[in-house]
Amino acid sequence: MALKQKAPLMKHELLALLAPIEQQHVLAFWDRLSPDQQQSLAEQIRELDLDLVHSLVHTHVLPRNAPQGGSPAPLSTSGGVARTLPAEPPASLAERAVGPPAIRLNGAGASYPVDEARRTGIQAWSSGQLGVLLVAGGQGTRLGFDHPKGMYPIGPVSGCSLFQILCEKVLAAQRRYDVTLPLYIMTSRATHDETCAFLAQHGYFGLAPSQVTLFRQGSLPAVDAQTGRLLLESPSSLALAPDGHGGLLRALRSQGVLQDMQNRGLTRLFYMQVDNPLATVGEPLFAGWHLLEQSELSTQVVAKQAPDERVGNVVEVDGRVQIIEYSDLPAEAAARRHPDGSLVLWAGNIAVHLFELPLLAQFSTADCTLPFHVARKKVPYIDESGYRVQPERENACKFEQFIFDLLPHARRALVVEVDAEQAFAPLKNAPGAPRDAPEHVQARMIRLHRRWLEAAAVRVAPGVKVEISPLAALAPDDLAGRLPQNWQIEADTYIYAAADGSLAWRGAK
Which of 35, 242, 260, 370 could, after both became Cys, cross-link 188 (CB 3.0–4.6 A)? Predict the structure, then answer.
């Protein structure tokens, strides 16, 4: 979905936008810039919600630095500022937090039989009313990979990218359920163009171009942590960062994506992030529980193995489900245990959700927004003389929103436990890191597919890597009766679907 082109703004027009919020310093180098650089900077300014920026600065930055008894400046009146949903400090929430009510792996907590949930989930995926949303705004910088993270070659034998594996899961699910599953991919300013080119180059990995919609999440500027002034990354560029996965709500409305979903007859969305190749696209139980429990927002969780595990904590506070990030959870709260030794705050967020579309529509309106989270970071910037400064300490504030902050505002939220070995392998860090590195993700993929093959009476030699394309099998039952009898795999093997639908295999490339 292409953004509409608008006429370039002139300097006096930009000053008219910036002066009311006292940020006109970002044009200090305007007269030195080439026409292309001027247009680039003007477009960045145009895309900002300047009233929102002004509100964030005067709400989250300047009050910290104001003298005792001072008060923030009034908001700009050039446009309306959204009403922000209330957000209680995490430490206060943690004092009252308990483990959430959930449907556990053993079936505890379920109000309906598993078979009924499975039938209902199959109907949901087959209905033509369910779409898939893939969040893919992150760069591979932390992986030492100078491209969008979704392009990272994670397949342990095939070398397939994250994008290929997840797109093939969507394709496999729609073949299983004989339905078209619209796929929406949210990119960012940093990843959009390269992602579009990569997917087009690879034919959208078998999906029809008409069913794939790419759209960009918004950006928010980094501001000086003392003055609230916008920082320049270069004389022609603001220091910008994605507005967080909670920016989805604003992007859905501003780019016409919500209208497209409604035009296609969608009523709910399966949400996943690009760094988890084990995301359970097409799995019926999750959708079945969601519908039977009449949930507006359902989320998958895994049982934490340690109090300080680096996952968001899904909790219940005062009868409402919400998430406290691991970095915000006090150690004493994380360490609380029941008499049997199990963790009180046991549920780890894996960023796989099911949303009812009306909920997203309600909170994407201009008069209501999710709370903003503020992080202090070291951000290089251009000083008043035009020199680039590399700060030695945290000098800037960045702002972002989290989509999971919708949880306590859903009329009904559902928590469903899944097995981490089957559903969660997050790719976060570079090779050699102690956790969430490519080798850890690949090891979990190999273990899962080894179990599938062994369940199909295939023997896999110790130490051998095996990988199964989603088009060959989306679940272990898909392998039944389709593999050679008495097969013994002695070398690294990738199993995939041939053009005629039969299974084929090869070694590593």
Answer: 242
Domain 83-424 belongs to what architecture?
Alpha-Beta Complex (3.90)
Residue 212's DSSP bridge partners are 183
Return the structure tokens found at 91. Answer: 């430490």
| Distance separating alpha carbons of residues 311 and 104, to the nearest angstrom | 18
> CB of 157 within 8 A of CB of 452?
no
Ramachandran class of 28: left when φ > 0, alpha when ψ lies in -120 to 50, beta otherwise: alpha
Q: Where are the chain's structural domains?
A: 11-65, 83-424, 443-506
- Non-local (6+) Cβ contacts of 419 within 8 A are 105, 302
CA within 13 Å, CB half, 460: 20
| Dihedral (Cα; 208, 137, 134, 114), 10-degree rounding | 160
**Residues in Cβ contact with 303 at an 8 Å cutoff, skipping those fewer than 6 apart:** 105, 346, 347, 348, 417, 420
Which residue, among 287, 326, 289, 318, has the nearest Cα to 404 in the 3D structure? 326
C-alpha span between 374 and 397 (Å, rounded): 6
DSSP string, 153-195: B--TTT--BHHHHHHHHHHHHHHHHTS---EEEEE-TTTHHHH
Give the integer Cα–Cα distance in Å for 50 and 343.
Answer: 44
Q: Within a 10 A sphere around the Cβ of 79, how many other Cβ atoms?
A: 12
Pairwise CA distance, residues 325 & 314, whole Å? 9
| Integer Cα distance of 163 and 167 in angstroms | 6
| Nearest one of 490, 499, 492 to 467, comparing CA atoms | 492
Strands 232-234 and 503-506, sheet pairing: unpaired
